[in-house]
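Run folding on both entries below.
>entry_1
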Amino acid sequence: MLKKLKPDIYVDDIYAIDYEALKHEGITGIIFDIDNTLIPYEESMPNDKIQELFDKLKEMEFVISFISNGPKKRVDKFNTRLNFYTRHRACKPLSVNLRKFIEEVNLEKNQVAIIGDQIFTDVIAGKCAGIKTILVRPIKPRNSIIEKIKRRLESKLLQKFNEMEMKR
């Protein structure tokens, strides 16, 4: 069970990911979550640093998608300058929209990675879709009670994963 929750990679943020290594590994498609992975909830547009990263990823010929549980208006607004494949109200951790993206862009599962900030949505969806999962620290967690509970559980899971790695 824990295996379904453990991300393949865990890093501080999207800028700490070695995209060259992903490319070398055969990853050609990247699915990004938006909220708290790329921008905080209170922002709606990518900043210049994000724009630069996506320009670099385009140059590297990655096929990019934003698959978010957020509403269409928010996802479309974020994507205005970037113009990538999107899915809104994706119902993650269900993997149906990840699978649709993989099929529509004609990639194999082993060629795709998902990058997100939540174990219980992004990582589980990625694992269920059979793709590489990359977890980043949330940019700015919400202060809702549900969010606090989820983040506390995620913190305990990450601690457990660390302990398991150290025993190896």
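>entry_2
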Amino acid sequence: MSKLLQDTVGELSKLPGIGRRTALRLAMHILKMEQQSVLDMTSSIERFRTQIRHCSQCNNLSDEEICPICADATRDRSTICVVEQVADLMSIENTHQYRGLYHVLGGVISPMQGIAPSDLKIDLLTEKIERGGIREVILAISTSVEGETTLFYIMNRLRGFTDLKVTTIARGIGFGDELEYVDELTITHALMNRREIE
């Protein structure tokens, strides 16, 4: 195998979810692309890596100091949806069902990975709530052990805000799941979040 091809496959395979076979397919695809398209791609990646920043208000990724969501005056400024990562924010935005603001933590509490509460943007969240005007915080955090730990930590931090409504997204059994294969924690959440059939 060519040294250039080996190097390219090696670099591509460093990306999450990309094994050596997929990296090889990507490398071969890049080789077939028009040279200008490859230059545009590499230029875009380089600009993204060097120019992207975190929104000073919600920790979302942005080209500016304030992201377009926080700058949008038509959004409901009384509600904040707390998510782990920017990808979670994008997933919720893609539903077009939520029109409030967001807060990106930047991860979850994980002692095994050395991530403490102080490593997350929880203080930025509480500062925003202290400024007033926030009526509800929606915690949209994963149901992993680390996610549950983070959820309970944030709930405890927010207990002091007596006029604040703190909710979590519904958790439970997914559409098409068979009950016998669902874990106990998911079944517990499903039972706790049950609703009346109308």
